[in-house]
Specification:
The protein is of the alpha/beta class and 417 residues long. It folds into three domains: 2-171, Molybdenum Cofactor Biosythetic Enzyme, Chain A (3-Layer(aba) Sandwich), CATH 3.40.980.10; 176-254, Alpha-Beta Plaits (2-Layer Sandwich); 259-416, Alpha-Beta Complex (Maf protein), CATH 3.90.950.20. 42% of the residues lie in helices and 26% in strands. It has helices at residues 10-13, 20-31, 46-59, 77-84, 93-105, 112-115, 153-171, 189-195, 197-201, 229-246, 259-270, 284-290, 308-315, 319-325, 330-344, 391-411, and strands at residues 2-8, 35-42, 62-66, 89-91, 119-121, 125-127, 136-141, 144-149, 176-185, 207-214, 217-226, 251-254, 274-278, 299-304, 348-354, 369-376, 379-386. The strands form four sheets. It has a six-stranded mixed β-sheet, sandwiched between helices. Strands 14-13-15-16-17 form a five-stranded mixed β-sheet, sandwiched between helices. It is elongated and about 85 Å long. It starts with a strand and ends in a 6-residue tail after the last helix.
Length: 417
């Protein structure tokens, strides 16, 4: 079945507030077997709300509305819906009690605007908002359901997770939808799609494949839909086994994995440690590594060697190598990796040096040229990358490339590099 989402608020239309509600609701609805047909963002205007609602009800059985339920004069959603469903407002004592508790907890005195929060449409099914003051409202009309919720994200999520989603699942009979995501790095979308042409063509009708690229990482999302969960799970598992055989060198994880999480797992298994020496990435590799809980077990530290002086003084880079080959070179980045590993007594190390841009490039070394080296006690491996001319994008891409190179080096997958 399909649902529509209507988000209300002038602040959303002018970009003052990012519309995170619609994205979250779409993800969560999909988990219970409901596809989102359309998302509309509209202003705090009575006629606009009514027109959007009428149009949505022509297309779907379920309409979810967020926003416009607060106590101020611009919050007109409740009054508009009460009129639309021909339902007079009545005082709900349960809502009033909750509003009273909430205000007392926050040491806010009750006033007339707060009291009006307890006035709700008589025909609506009411869901108490335990995270705020505006309740959610469930209307039914000719077999269709309209649910209005506050626009504050944490209030909406609390209401939907604990009360509204269970009610929707009871009211509508929906199919089972299962998603599995395979994470890949090291190729581009068109190339990956070419490699997987035969794989896609043989997919069962119940299984769909989607490509979700983000700055080098391409997520392969397999979605299965059917009446029996066990059957769908088994089918998706079978297709994922095939992917591991077809593109083993590109897959680095699944679901919510990240390159830094995988690296942490690998280092823990080996009982090894890591240090980093970063120039063009400015500490972003170290930041991502240390963002993983428990990284203190294996991460020792980092040197952000942005200037040549720091490369020489703290990493032991030969000034002659910088003069002869330049700071962005195989020779220098390898000395950086070796220097930080030895000085920190780490099992593994990684170093980056590049031209992030927008200035600093030459014909021989254009903007986007990056050298990355990884090392351990057995040896060292370095690789040159050529990215684009966008500085921030180059920094992020260099970080991902470095993390992936380190992952492959630790795993001994040199044949895939």
């Amino acid at each position: 079945m399909y649902a529509e989402i209507i988000t209300i608020g002038d602040e959303l239309l002018i970009g003052q507030t990012i519309n995170s509600n619609a994205a979250w609701m779409g993800q969560e609805l999909n988990k219970i077997g409901i596809d989102v047909y359309q998302v509309s963002t509209i202003s705090d205007d009575k006629n606009h709300i009514v027109d959007a609602l009428k149009d949505a009800l022509k297309r779907t059985e379920l309409v979810l509305i967020t926003g416009g339920l607060g106590p101020t004069r611009d919050d007109i959603t409740k009054y508009t819906l009460a009129e639309y469903f021909n339902s007079p407002l009545v005082r709900n004592e349960n809502v009033y009690t909750q509003v009273e508790k909430m205000l007392k907890k926050r040491s806010i005195p009750m006033n007339d605007l707060n009291r009006k929060q307890a006035e709700v449409p008589e025909k609506a099914r009411i869901f108490i908002n335990y995270a705020g003051t505006a309740p959610a409202m469930w209307f039914e009309l000719e077999g269709k359901v309209v649910i209005a919720m506050p626009g504050v994200p944490y209030e909406m999520k609390e209401l939907m997770t604990k009360q509204i989603f269970p009610s929707i699942s009871q009211h509508f009979k929906t199919p089972v939808i299962i998603h599995r995501t395979i994470l890949t790095y090291g190729t581009f979308e068109a190339k990956l799609a070419e490699i997987l042409t035969d794989f896609e063509e043989q997919l069962p009708s119940e299984i769909k494949l989607a490509y979700l690229p983000t700055e080098g990482v391409i997520k392969l999302r397999l979605s299965g839909r059917g009446a029996r969960e066990e059957k769908i799970v088994k089918m998706i598992d079978g297709e994922i086994e095939k992917l591991y055989k077809i593109i083993p060198g590109y897959i680095f994880g699944e679901q919510d994995d990240s390159l830094e999480k995988i690296i942490g797992v690998l280092l823990k298994k080996k009982g090894e440690t890591l240090s980093t020496a970063e120039s063009c990435t400015g500490g972003l590799i170290a930041h991502r590594i240390t963002a993983v809980p428990g990284s203190s077990d294996y991460f020792i530290g980092s040197v952000i060697a942005y200037s040549n002086l720091i490369k020489e003084k703290h990493l032991g880079v030969d000034p002659g190598s910088i003069d002869e080959f330049g700071a962005v070179s195989r020779q220098v980045v390898e000395q950086m990796a070796q220097g930080v590993r030895e000085r920190f007594s780490a099992g593994y190390s990684i170093a980056t040096s590049g031209i992030a841009g927008p200035a600093g490039g030459t014909a021989e070394k254009p903007v986007g040229t990056v050298w990355i080296a990884v090392a351990d006690k057995k040896g060292i491996y370095s690789r040159k990358y050529t990215f684009g001319n966008n500085r921030l994008r180059n920094i992020r891409r260099s970080t991902l490339a470095g993390l992936n190179l380190l992952r492959q080096y630790i795993k001994g997958e040199m044949d895939h590099i």
